[in-house]
Task: structure prediction
Amino acid sequence: MRLRLEKRLEPSRTMLVMTPVLSVIAIMLLGVIIFDGLGYDGPQAVWELFFTPVLDVYKWRDVASKAAPLIIIALGLSLGNQAKIWNIGAEGQYILGAIGAAGVAFATQSMTGFWIIPLMILVGMVLGAIYAAIPAVLRTRYGVSEVLSSLMFVYVSLQLLSYLITGPWKDPDGHNFPQTAQLTDAQLLPHELWDSGIPPGLLVALIGAVIFYIIVSRTVFGFSVRAIGEAPHAARYGGFSSNGIVWATLMISGAMAGLAGVLELMQLTRLNLGYPSGYGFTAIIVSLLGRSHPIGVFIAGIVLAITYVGGQVAQTVVHVPNATAGLFQALLLFAILASDLLVRYRIRISTASSSSKGARS
Amino acid sequence: MSVAPRLELIDVSKRFPGVLANDRVSLSVKPGEIHALLGENGAGKSTLVKMIYGIQAPDSGSILWEGQEVRIAHPRAARRLGVGMVFQHFSLFEAMDVLENIALGLDGAVSRKQLDAEIRLVMEKYGLKLDPRRQISTLSVGERQRIEIVRALLLNPRLLIMDEPTSVLTPQEVDDLFKTLRRLASEGCSILYISHKLHEIVELCERATILRGGKVVATCDPRKETARSMGEMMIGSDLRDPARGQVSVEGPVRLSVRELSLPKPDDFGVALEQISFQVKGGEIFGIAGVAGNGQNELLEALCGEHLADLHTTIEVDGMPVGRSGPSGRRKLGLCSVPEERNGHAAIGAFSLSDNAILTARSRMGFENQGFIHKAGADEFAANVIKTFAVKTLGPDALAGSLSGGNLQKYVMGREIMQSPGVLVVSQPTWGVDAGSAAFIHQALIDLAAQGSAIVVISQDLDELLRLCDRLSVINLGKLSTPRPVGDVSVQELGLLMGGSHATPANSAGGIHAA
Result:
């Protein structure tokens, strides 16, 4: 007996929507088995991880504030995904965004004015975009894969961050801790909007999702991104520049990651060594789980935020290790990639024993 | 007592969801016979052949090989019986070389050196020219086909199935191929020959089985028929010749190309050298040539995918466009249809409506300040489908779900209905059935009659001789002096097409070394 993969004529649209949902359910079941095997209370661990954050009103704010950066970054990445241009370095662009905003904050410490916050956002986004432009140059001029170069620049950004907060930008009143000075009131957005518990980032994510939806489905630019992803040669014949799309998608995703970095800085109020939290990497899972569709990304961002919050709950209640959330996120990525294969291909079981009766040997 | 047929099919049927692809088809091929299988696209030829080659199993009916009933479960079994096949769509790995691809098609392990020697022997014997060490991604369609032929011949087949083998050959090469096939037949090998080129079948085949709608509608001796009579049996109605009225080509020059030179796009591409020609309104200008002599490069240079050095190298209605991309040229009225339908002229995973947006967005006004007017694209696509009789569910159907002929009609219609001042098309009827081909030819003639200038790049000389007013031949990136169609013989054209191919193995090796 032999197993064989056979390409489906057309992937089922229902399954394209259903597989992310099924993936989440599958890893819940898998989680029960794993934790039971490890000697924990498996069902309870999974319950705390996935359901407590949803059912406990006091956790909603946490979920929302974690979902916001994930969604904002993943929206930018999903545009690149559709063009099959893979920005793996959003974490670096996210850090650069925060560094840009912190730089503005450093320079405006003694000032006030309504322009400071917009300037921080602008500089953060521009810096994120420029940082993502480096892999774009390498790809369009020298043919270097953006997957590798963008990832490698994450580590450069970590070094830059650590240099700045231990060196020139170190808080003079910080008891020698490696951190920047606290942002002033003129540099901070409100912690929540209209006392509703909704962090400003979530509103930005929502507006972002609407804008990206319009870009992808209604504009010639969105069309060109999809065309390049599906058939680069046809896109060129249609008058679209593939280099242009590489630049545009990388820089847009860089700017979005930078924006998330600025907003996160305003939540945390200062830069320190704990700032890089891996949102830029987790956002890759969010964009894939959300099928690179703005609505899907929004939902997927909340799901992944739940695993972060639930991981902490499960840690305190069931005493599972801290790495649990990361484990589930990785399992989720596997489940999506595996089910994607099955959506696009079918498995055929063929028996090798059959042969022609009249065959000569 | 007569000899048992090499292959006999009795009442073979195959049903797919929604279609009866083969309906009780019977057919018999004698040893050493060259047997034609004729039919329009969708008539069931491919399905039938796939069953003979073990790719699909018949639902009912029986297959007899030399008088014995056999069940051919997979292609390996077919090859063991002695069935060889040259496919219309090639199954080659792009990143590997010719030798590796042929080795992969063999069932046993053979050393590279030995295989190399065997390949060279077969190629020499049958006059097929190809460097076994070239990488597939750098080969033209014609060269890829030669690999498939060599691959099949290496197995010393006793029945060789050839699916549309001549579409990419020069007349001389076709003659050579026919010699090869006749020689194979005289050695006792049977040949099942699938082609749309009816005069080839008249010339080559001893018997023909004609399929229509999955059924055998006639069996005849092509030598006693004409191309026309067989064509009519095939489509089941009278064939209409494209009506080319008496045209006086006195219009203004609409397309002018002056000393267009472009370097090779990659190591194995063809550089264009000093190409100059002009096409007037109302004129159809043909460019003949063997595959891989710069046709793709020329089309891409004309449509704007590759830019010329000077803006004035290419002019449309007197306006320079040499440095404009595809969109800029389309705005000035230069539209084009490349050879490769899926992945170049159209995006298989996109709907027909989205494929209309791909090239017609600015001329037909589906684009407004960066936003797409979807309803306009739907309407235009529906219009193309109706006018060009494209068989499909509608504008939302995926381009990839259409058959080759239908997609070609759609793509041609999409460009023609933009009323281009200049239309450049490559291989407008490659792999398209006779009925659709006639339709496409008529549409080109009608467009020219409205005053457009048309450039047809094709490897099908009959097509060019029927359609064009003037002809040139492209060879190794150079264009011969254009000549009026009436003044030039097929033999002369053939010589021009093959002219610089005296030592192709050497030149290919040279490129490889460089």
